[in-house]
Design brief:
Structural class: alpha+beta
Order of helices and strands: EEHEHEEH
Strand order of the largest sheet: 3-2-1-4-5
Oligomer: single chain
Shape: globular
Strand content: 25-35%
Distance between the termini: 59 Å
Helix content: 10-25%
Length: 187
Amino acid sequence: MIKHYAGMKAEKSVTGEPLPKGGYVVKIEGARVEEYSWGSVLVVAIDVAEGEYAGFFRRQFDANLNEDKKWKGTFRLTIPDENSQYFASNKRVFNNFIYSLETSNNGYHFDWDETKLKGKFFGALYREKEFESNSGDIITTTECGGSTDIASIRSGDFRLPKDKLLERKPADYNAFANVPADDDLPF
């Protein structure tokens, strides 16, 4: 007989299908700054605002019955720090995000207050990303890896950022791992 556990409830499991790779007009649902020992990150919560996938992350969030559910649609930008070795690349990405916001929201000018980002629109560029699960499986999902203005999304005039795939080693990568350590090598 199966042992009873607390909180048993017959309920449908929610699968988190990723948003397909592509460009989307998105609306900012909120923003916050997270601090780390190496710097600060602007975390922008977004949802698809137009097209077939409009409301994608809201539907996913509402369908999730877990108590510790999290909003899946985020764009994370490292805030440029002049003391960082990555200052130039972080500045390029952050400046492009500001351009995307100011161009996509008539009359808007970025004033460094992340709380004022809610309700603004921009073009989000989703790429594929792979990661290894705790069980060793390779999982493929998508993530917002860049931004552009919404006119470019609507016209299809954009390039997606490069996918973030795990490095693949050849099947015979460890072929010589068990070779004896003496001078009588097998070749």
